[in-house]
Amino acid sequence: MSGPFLRDYEIGEEIGRGRFGVVRRCRSAATGEEFALKSIEKCLLADAVDRECAEREAKVHHLAASGNPHAVQIHAAYEDEAWVHLVVELLDGPDLCDRIAARGGTPFAEPEAAALVASLAEAVAACHRGGVAHRDVKPDNVLFDARGRLKLADFGSAECFVGDGGDRVPMKGIVGTPWYVAPEVVAGKAYGEKVDVWSLGVVMYMLLAGGLPPFYGETAAETFEAVSRANLRFPPRVFRSVSPAAKDLLRRMLCKDVSRRFSADQGIHGLQVEE
Questions:
Q1: Binding residues
Q2: N or C: which end of the chain has fewer CB within 10 A?
Q3: How confident is the model at residue 3 (pLDDT cuts 50, 70, 90)?
């Protein structure tokens, strides 16, 4: 690890691990404040997309989190020959994936699901206003602070879709997690920030369906095929108590036609109307 980093922080226990690195607790040597340290090992970045994401993560995270109370805040970034280190807000509680699993297949009540998705939509909308698409919105990346406030985490796949001159820049590359990725990403087309709205719709569906995703298969390839078909169904056994308004909102977020798909701001309005 880099010298300046070791001077600034005391490194603690491991609290998470991903494809490219590890998350540990750390403490500021100056203030004693605790943070999470995300360390990305460069040698594990196998392709150009992964390398580009790692190189820009700190910058994009700063853009997405600035003025965004529903995003995990980033405090510092360090880099040496082997690693990229990001010092971010520490959130100890279970993530949304854990909360869904703990219910053992019991759906969230519609008002509770609407409140969670509204907060997540606000996080996504703020990212989009800053010109950033998250590109990996899923329950694993939805954390909560000590007061129970929702925080969108992990900007490792995020990208700016607005150029220096203010012009829109199409994004490319299959980035994200199969269950949550949008059809236009699977198709290999250029795409915009509404890929996050699709993922948001998947999260809402899962909350109302007790963890069941709307599009899935036994393998990643089968899941991508189901996503490409985008045949949205509401099994009566699962959705019998879900309101027509909630189902209509899901249809507008999980709409294959990007021009007709809601924006994040429209999703927030739809959730307010539903509540």
A1: 38
A2: C
A3: low
β-bridge mates for residue 11, sequence order: 26
E strand or H helix at 247: helix 244-253
At residue 223, what is the residue type? T
Instruction: Report the 10 Å Cβ neighbour count for 232.
Output: 16
Range 230-235 contact pairs with CB under 8 angstroms and sequence separation of 24 or more: 230/183, 230/254, 230/255, 230/256, 235/209
What is the pLDDT averaged over residues 205-216? 96
Place 211 in a pLDDT band, splitting at 50, 70 and 90: very high
Give which of 142, 110, 161, 143 is closest to 274, Cα–Cα: 110
Catalytic residue chosen out of the listed positions 80, 95, 98, 136 = 136
Q: Over 80: is that where the pLDDT of 44 sits?
A: no
Q: How far apart are CA 181 and CA 178, in angstroms?
A: 5
Binding site for ATP, by residue number, is: 38
- Report the relative pairing of strands 83-88 and 34-41 from DSSP bridges: antiparallel
CA distances from 256 to 106, 216, 250, 262, 264 (A): 28, 16, 12, 11, 15
Going along the chain from its start, the domains and CATH numbers come out as 3-88 (3.30.200.20), 96-274 (1.10.510.10)
* Residue 136 bears catalytic tag: yes
Query: Considering the entire predicted model, what is its pTM?
Result: 0.91
